[in-house]
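Progress against Task 2.4 (sequence-to-structure conversion) is shown through the following example record, which the project officer requested during the mid-term review.
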Amino acid sequence: MSSKVQILKTYPVTGMSCASCAVRTEKFVKTLPGIKSAAVNFADTSLMVEFLPDEITPSEMKKAIQSIGYDIIIDEANSQELKEEAQLSYFKTIRNNTIGAAALSIPLLIIAMFLMNIPYANYIMMALATPVVFWFGRQFPTGAWKQLKHRSANMDTLVALSTGIAYFYSAFVTLFRDLFNKEGMHGHVYFEASAVIITFILLGRMLEEKAKSNTSSALKKLIGLQPKVVTMVMQNGELKEIPVSNVMPGDILLVKPGNKIPVDGTVTSGGSFVDESMISGEPLATEKTTDSKVFAGTINQKGSFQFRADKVGGDTVLAQIIKMVREAQGSKAPVQHLVDKIAGIFVPVVIIIALLSGIIWLILGTENALPHSLLAIVTVLIIACPCALGLATPTAIMVGIGKGADTGILIKDAESLEITHKVNTIVLDKTGTITMGEPEVKGVRWKKNIEIEKYSKILLGIQKSSEHPLAEPVVRYLEKSGLNSNYLSARVESITGRGIKADIDKELFLIGNRKLLEEFNISIDKELLTFAETWQNEAKTVSFFADSKQALSVMAISDRIKESSVEAIRQLHNLGIEVHMLTGDNEQAAKATAEETGVDSYKAEVLPQAKYDYIRQLQQQGKIVAMVGDGINDSQAMAQADVSIAMGKGSDIAMDVAKMTIISSDLTRIPQAIKLSKHTVTTIKQNLFWAFIYNIIGIPLAAGVLFPFTGFLLNPMIAGAAMALSSVSVVSNSLRLKVKSI
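C-alpha cells generated for the chain above:
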C-alpha cells in the first residue's frame, strides 16, 4: 500500500454539453499519472478527483483536460464564484444563440411550409439557415471536431452530423437542381429541418441549464450563509471591520442583532438567542450565554454579544457541511455507474443505427429512396439523446441531498442515500442517541471513616485529567460544591468498557463499574453495594471510586431520554423497521430505557467489539442494518453497518465517521431520512424509465419502422423538439423532490 499522501478535491468543469462528455472526461482523467480515482457529475458539472500531488498538480490536470476540449477551475478560493460566472456566461451565450436561431428559423419554417413556390425560395432558405447552422449552432460542429480529434463522439457529434447532412444535402439540391431534374428525382430541401432542429436543441439546453442551476440551490443557500465582513474587537476596545478571511483563532468578534455569525467560537460576554435552523434544522432559537458555542452561518436575533473565534475558514462546522454536501452531490449512486457505461457507448451505437437505417432505405429502392434515407439518418441522429439518461440519476441525487441539508440531514455520498430506503433494521446506541447524552450525578455515597475531602480532591483531579464521557458530570458535581484539586498531574489510562485507572504519587486509583473492581480484586463495602444495587434498579449508571485495596465511594449517574426518541421509534415501527438498542450501560438502565421507548430488542454492557459482532449477526440473518451512534466509541460498528448515522450538533468526528449526520440530534430525522431516500430512489427509477422508454420508442420511429405499415415518417423537427423535451422533463421531475413532504 502506498504511503504517499493522497488529496481529494472537487473542481468545477466547463465545456461539457452532454452525459457522454462527462463519461469521456472521467475516463480521460483516470488515465492521467497520479490519479487514484475520478468521478465527473454532469448535473453539477464537477470533477471529484483523488490524486497524488507529488505526481500530478492541479495545473497539469487542467492542461490535460483542456487538450480534450474541456476545462476545470482550480482557483479554490473563488471556485464557486468562477463556476457561477462560467455558468451564467454559458447561459447568456446559449440564450442569445437560441433567440438568434429562432429569429431566423421562424421565417424559414413559414417559407418551407407555405411559400415554397415564391421565386428563389431555396436560396432565401439557404441564406436564413446558414447563420443558424454555422454561427448560432457553432458549438455543435466545434464540439464534434474536438471529439473527433480524440477519436471520440458525443451529443455534439449527433447534432453536427444530422444538421450538417440535412444542410449540405439541401445546399447541393439548391446549387445543382438541374442534375436532380436530369435523373428524374424531386430535389426536396431540408434547410428548415437543420435550422429548427438546432433551435429546439439550443432551447432545450437553455431550459436544462436553468433547471440544473435549481438542483444545487441548497448548496448555494449554505454558501450564502457565510458573511463577507466581520466586526473585530481590538485590544484597546476599538471596533474594526475586517474581511472574514482575515479572522484568526483567538480573535474577539462582535455580533450585533440580525448579524450572521462569521466563524465558530465561544461566547465571552453578552448574550442573545441565535437561529441555528439553517444548520441544525431546529426551528426554535437557541439561547447563548457566556461559554456557549456559536457556529458560522447562524443568525443572531435580538441581543449583542462578543465571542472568541475558535474555528475559522475551512474548519468551521458550516464549511464542513458545505464541503460534505458538495462532495455528496458530486458522488455517484451505484446505479449511475451502469448508466455511465451505457452513455459511453450510446453515441457510437446511435451513429451505426442511423447509417444502417439509411442503407436499408436505399436498398429497399422505394420512390424517393435517397431523401427517405437521408431523413432516416438525420432523424435517428437527432432523436437519440444520452442527456436525459445522463441527467436521470445525478439530478435526483443532488436535489435529494440538498433537501436533506435543508432539514438538518447531512448525507455524505449518493450510495448511502440510495441504500437507506432498503434498511429494515436500525440499531441505536443509548447514550447521546436515545438519551440526551448529558449525564448528571444524582447521588454520591462515601465509605465510612475515610477522609472524604482528601479523596474528593483526588477524584476531581483524576476526572479532570480523564476524557471518559462520565468524567465531565462528576467534575461539574464536585466543582459546584466549591471544591478545587491539587491532583491535576494524574496519569490516566482508559480501560475500554469498564472505566479508567489512574496513578497519583505512585498510588493506584480506579473509577468504573463493578467488573473493573473485581478484575483488580478490590473489596466493596456492603453499604456501598446496597446503594449501587438500589440505583441500578432505578436505571441509573453506577460508578465506583477505589484505591488499590477498597472501594471509597459509589456514584449514581443518569441521563434523560430525549423527547423525540419515543416518537421516532414509533415512526420507525410504522415504516416496518425493527429497532434495536445497544449500550455499555448496566442491564437495569438498559431495560428501563428500552421499556420506556418501545425498542424491539436491547443488549446491555456491550463493548465496542460486541456492538460490531451484533451488527454482523443481524446482517448474516439477511437484514439491511443502519447503525446510529455518536461516531466515536461506535465507530467500529458503524463501519460494519450498511448505513451509518451519526447524531450530534455537527461534530467533526461524527461527520468523519458516518455516511449520514443528523445535526440536530433529533431522532425523528431518521425516519425522515428513510422517506427522503425512498422518494429519491423512486424519482431516479422514474427518470431512468422515461429516458430509456423515450429512446426505445423514439429511435425505431425515427428509423421509419412504421412507414411500411402506415406510411408514417417522423419529421426531424419533431424529433428535435422531443429530444430537447426529454432532458428538461427529467430535470423537472427531479425538482419535484423539493416539494415532497418527508
